[in-house]
């Protein structure tokens, strides 16, 4: 059996520790910032309640014996939106408003909230996508100036001998129409 000296063992441990320290990526410093919605922006995004058909009118219609489906249709026709708290819902229920009407009021509010948030997310995604496309186009434009194979015109004399007739990249001058110019250059 081969004995390993303590110095060799210590050198091996130090080498492994240094190598593992070099292998970390450190991406936490380069992590993209999360674009959070502030309270003011959220207040602007949220759909506002606009009760054209007031809650008192809904109570009166319920007490008159109007069917819940007809009350819901009147709410839809008047394009009313409500922001009810749970205590208001309980109070309306005690005053005789049917559960179907209250359910419709809550589900329409939730649907409006989801639609508004989805619109905001889509708007932000489109802005990010446009920004990324702009950066890609800038990189492509910059590549023409930094890549020796891309900065010369497609047609005519080129110092890197790529052109029509299947020539490869090699030193020398090439003549051709540039059919085989590198991908992504033009």
For the structure shown, list the relevant keywords.
single chain; 186 residues; mainly alpha; two-stranded antiparallel ribbon; 6 helices; 2 strands; disordered C terminus
Task: Provide structural commentary.
The protein is mainly alpha-helical and 186 residues long. Helix content is 54%, strand content 3%. The chain has a two-stranded antiparallel sheet. The model is unreliable at 151-157 and 160-184 (pLDDT under 50).
- Please provide the ordered H/E string of secondary-structure elements: HHHHHHEE
**Main sheet record:** 2 strands, antiparallel
Reading side by side through the largest sheet, how are the strands ordered?
1-2
The gyration radius over C-alpha positions equals 35 Å
Distance between the termini: 65 Å
Low-confidence stretches: 151-157, 160-184
The quaternary structure here is single chain
- The tally of structural domains comes to 2
Q: What share of the residues does DSSP label as strand, in percent?
A: under 5%
What is the approximate shape? elongated
Briefly, what is this?
It contains 6 helices and 2 strands; from the N terminus they run H-H-H-H-H-H-E-E. It is mostly helical and 186 residues long.
Task: Furnish the topology, listing elements before pairings.
Elements: H1 6-22, H2 39-45, H3 55-63, H4 68-78, H5 86-94, H6 99-146, E1 156-158, E2 174-176
Antiparallel strand pairs: 1-2
Helix pairs in contact: 4-6
